[in-house]
Amino acid sequence: MLFHVHMTVNIPLDLDKAYVDELKAKEKNLSQELQRQGKWTHIWRIAGQYANISIFNVDSAGELHDILMSLPLYPFMQVEVTALCQHYSSIKNEEEAH
């Protein structure tokens, strides 16, 4: 299942910098591992914001939920999730039909 996920991180300014740096490092390591597994693709980072738009390719909505909940920065995130499906007019589908 494919999901479009828009994540905006809002870290409180008064949070300990060393703690924030540790969370960011853990987040980076986890996201890179998920990318190597083909589960998380960063599409782009939104300019001027600590936010990104990504595609997750997972077996179920439950797996996506578990992944998002495991992210070290999740407690500071605003997350919008949209399920995706392949559109019938896809060029790939037209080529397969011929």
From TrEMBL:
E.C. numbers: 5.3.3.4
**One GO molecular-function entry:** muconolactone delta-isomerase activity
The record's annotation in SUPFAM superfamilies points to:
Dimeric alpha+beta barrel (SSF54909)
| This protein's record includes keyword Lipoprotein | no
Tell me what reaction this enzyme catalyses: (S)-muconolactone = (4,5-dihydro-5-oxofuran-2-yl)-acetate
Listed under GO biological process in this entry are: beta-ketoadipate pathway
Which pathway does it take part in? Aromatic compound metabolism; beta-ketoadipate pathway; 5-oxo-4,5-dihydro-2-furylacetate from catechol: step 3/3
Keyword terms, alphabetized: Aromatic hydrocarbons catabolism, Isomerase
Does Flavoprotein count among this protein's keywords? no
* Positions of the Muconolactone isomerase domain: 1-89
InterPro entries the UniProt entry points to = Dimeric_a/b-barrel, MLI_dom, Muconolactone_d_Isoase
Q: Which Pfam families match?
A: MIase
Task: Please give the family membership noted in the entry.
Answer: Belongs to the muconolactone Delta-isomerase family.
> Could you give the subunit structure recorded for this chain?
Homodecamer.
What protein name does the entry list? Answer: Muconolactone Delta-isomerase
Species, as recorded: Pontibacter chinhatensis
Organism phylogeny = Bacteria, Pseudomonadati, Bacteroidota, Cytophagia, Cytophagales
